[in-house]
Amino acid sequence: MEKNNEQQELDLFSLLEKTGNFLYGILKKIAGFFGYLLQLTFRYYYVFFLFMFAAAAYSYYVTHGARRLYKAEFRVILNDGDLNTYSEIISSLNRYLENRDSERFDDLLQIPPQERGKVGGIFHSVVEGQDSVVKNTIIGITVGISSPEVFPTIEKALIDYFKRNDHFNSLNAVRIASLKERERILEKDIAAIDSLQKIEYFQKTNESVIKVDQKMILKTEKQMFYADKLKLLEEKEAVSKELATQPEVVTVVSEFLPSLKPYVSMRHVIVKYVLAAFLLFLFLALLWDNRKSIISYLRKKDTDLKTDA
């Protein structure tokens, strides 16, 4: 029994030793590989520094001047129209920028000459509401601009661009006319209930028979008239509020609040491009350092193919 236990312990120690040697071998190979990469870097240090300089120079290029973008979002309520149409309009504007046709973009938005060519991108997202329901849907419009002081101009230009759309204007005119008609009807209904409440007989009796305009007879409880009047007043208040606050195609609910820090900083960009340049350098250095082996391998394969043929 003791011999079996000793044998099991020896087997366990042997297994641990083999596992340790295996892991040590893997770590040694990884360390050797990184050592080889360091040797390559030192051997072709002039190429390495050339790649690093190019990465730093390009990082500076994309984060300065007109390419240095500041981003901010403003939010609008869509009072009417098709959400897909709004989305397509904004996407088409951004396509002009992606195709480097900022002149056409500036012409469409009627941006002043001194502030042209400063928009780098425009995007949108649904902030509140449903994609299938347009009315009272809030969308956020994000704009990337090279000069933060231009944000108010771009905001006004975008809103005016929506307002100049004939399709949206027609829909909005119908909406406003419908709201005004609804407001007129509500005022008439409220006035009718007020006249009924002034009748002394209606005030004293819980249930009454009243002749209105000598043509129609109503039989009801006065509590029901009070509830109806309250409901009509609430509806009229909502209609009047919409007419006062949302008379246009779109309504701005939150203006641009741009940050003074650029969206893409030099620090973040240089890390990305330096890393990419270093990986490219290692790949090319590996190819160059093993070029003879690679060429020999390719020639060998080419000879084998001809022999087989």
Blueprint (SSEs and pairs):
Blueprint: H1 2-43, H2 45-62, E1 70-78, H3 83-98, H4 102-109, E2 119-128, E3 137-145, H5 151-163, H6 166-197, H7 200-204, E4 207-212, E5 216-221, H8 222-245, E6 250-254, H9 266-289, H10 291-308
Antiparallel strand pairs: 1-3, 1-6, 2-3, 4-5
Helix pairs in contact: 1-2, 2-9, 6-8
Give the structure's gist in a few sentences:
Helix content is 65%, strand content 15%.
Any overview of this molecule?
The structure is a single chain. The protein is built from ten helices and six strands. The strands form two sheets. Strands 2-3-1-6 form a four-stranded antiparallel β-sheet, with helices on one face. Strands 4-5 form a two-stranded antiparallel sheet. 65% of the residues lie in helices and 15% in strands. The protein has helices spanning 2-43, 45-62, 83-98, 102-109, 151-163, 166-197, 200-204, 222-245, 266-289, 291-308; strands at 70-78, 119-128, 137-145, 207-212, 216-221, 250-254. It is an alpha+beta fold. The model is unreliable at 205-221 (pLDDT under 50). The chain has three domains: 2-62 and 266-287, no CATH class; 69-169, Alpha-Beta Plaits (2-Layer Sandwich); 176-245, no CATH class. Helix 1 (2-43) packs across helix 2, helix 2 (45-62) packs antiparallel against helix 9 and helix 6 runs antiparallel to helix 8 (222-245).
